Amino acid sequence: MIDLGYSLSRRFPDPPQTDYRSADQRALRHDLFCGDVYLADTREDRELSTAWGWVPVLDFAWALCDIVERLDRDPRGSRSSTPVHAELDFTESTDRLLFERRFGWVDITADWVPAGKPPLTFDHAALRREARDFLHDLLADLVDLHEGLGDNPVVWDLQSRFPRV
Fold it and tell me: What is the pLDDT of residue 120?
């Protein structure tokens, strides 16, 4: 089972003068909502997590949804034995999450994990569902915390681009 989660940082708060209603895509993705994220396999009791405090949490959720869709571009879908690769890079460092899909399974590892540790492996359809749920749950939390964010057209577009599955 997949568990995706986050925590917002107190060390890197959003600027108090932020108008969330009109914040542009760049601000929403890269400048606001910093914290840490984790991706866990609850059956294997293993996780990949950050502990930096500065990861743009909304950007992580958005990028994860994009990556899951990119991994599904092979017309043969889950029947394809050809590996499909993608990576999620963290803008303030050289660290990356690395994704490889083969057949209907996605292996996920990270640059900061010691060599030889096995990747987290998830069913692609389950990863898609969980990534989208994580995005929508995160947006709901952020809208509750920040007045005007729910009225932002970028947020509306994002929610319609990646509906819950």
Answer: 97
